[in-house]
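Lab notebook: predicted structure, single chain.

Context: the supervisor wants predicted structures on file for every construct in the current expression panel, including those that have not yet been purified. This is the next one on the list. No modifications to the sequence; it matches the entry in the shared construct table.
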Amino acid sequence: MKELLKIEYNLLGRIFKLLLWLLFALPIGIFLLLIDNYLANFFGIILVIFSVFYFLNLLFFKSLIFYENQIMKESNIFGKTYKRTLDYSKMDSTVSKSFFGGSLMFWEKGNRWKTYWFFIFDLFPVSNENFKIIRQILMDKNIIDGDFHWNY
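Prediction complete. Output recorded below exactly as produced.
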């Protein structure tokens, strides 16, 4: 398989995002759990679960590799490498931007909730040039049409 692009996080970007989640998102979720209100507790539980998942996703991420026919996400969990692949022909994607980077998400069509959680990719530790290359690869593979959401 021909490798089109390999993305690995830079150390400073990864540390910044990990601290951001530990110092802001997780404490806000815990604070919402301490309020005597069912709705606040519900959102607190969701925020804590999402924060822990996102933190672990950032911590264990090794690389995202774009090949000719598929993408592969590698995670390194306590020295063991786990690989997940997703074919372009079965894939859909979206991007969400935020003040601190945003996220790139991939999933298998018709199986979104089962595959979505394994292919969330934080954009903060990624350069603008690499984001443009990712965008172009996805346009070439007819995954996206290059709309304004994908402009960086």
